Amino acid sequence: MFNLLAKILADSKWNMRMLLLRKGLKWTQKEAAERCATNHRTYCNWENAVNTPRESSQKSIAKAFGVKVEDLFSDIPKKSIVLIIISSLINHLGNFS
After folding, report:
1. CA distance 97 to 51
2. Which DSSP helix (H) or strand (E) runs through 59?
3. How many CA within 13 A on the CB side of residue 15?
4. Sequence-ordered list of residues with C-beta below 8 angstroms from that of 44, at least 6 positions apart, any chain
5. How many Cβ atoms are within 10 Å of 20's Cβ, its own excluded?
6. Cα separation of 96 and 80, whole Å?
7. Ranked by mean pLDDT, which of 10-14, 45-49, 77-81 comes out on top?
8. Are the C-beta atoms of residues 28 and 21 closer than 8 Å to each other?
């Protein structure tokens, strides 16, 4: 299962990585928007890939999620962000028990 999830994440786009990081942290979109220093509507547009964040916003987003800009927004994600996302999702799922 780990390998399958890693493969899916490796093939994911930046907006899906944002969504998965947010879900893993148990943030609402509104809370993520606040932490990323933007408004709710703009954040939703980013997460749904309606718009791509500007470079300055990418820095705010990466900082909020505790990852590197290039790891979150590169076309081919580094192994480190895949592991961060998997870890946060496992942590999130573990809280259901």
Report:
1. 37
2. helix 55-65
3. 13
4. 29, 33, 50
5. 22
6. 25
7. 45-49
8. no
Residues 6 or more apart in contact with residue 90 via CB below 8 angstroms: none
Please say whether the beta carbons of 10 and 82 come within 8 A. Answer: yes
Amino acid at the residue 4: L
Q: pLDDT tens digits for 40-51?
A: 999 999 999 999
For 34-49, give the DSSP string.
HHTTS-HHHHHHHHTT
CB atoms within 10 A of CB 36: 24
Give dist(CA 2, CA 14) in Å, integer. Answer: 20
Q: What is the Cα gyration radius of the chain?
A: 13
Q: Please check whether residue 55 is in contact with residue 27, taking contact to mean a CB–CB distance below 8 angstroms.
A: no
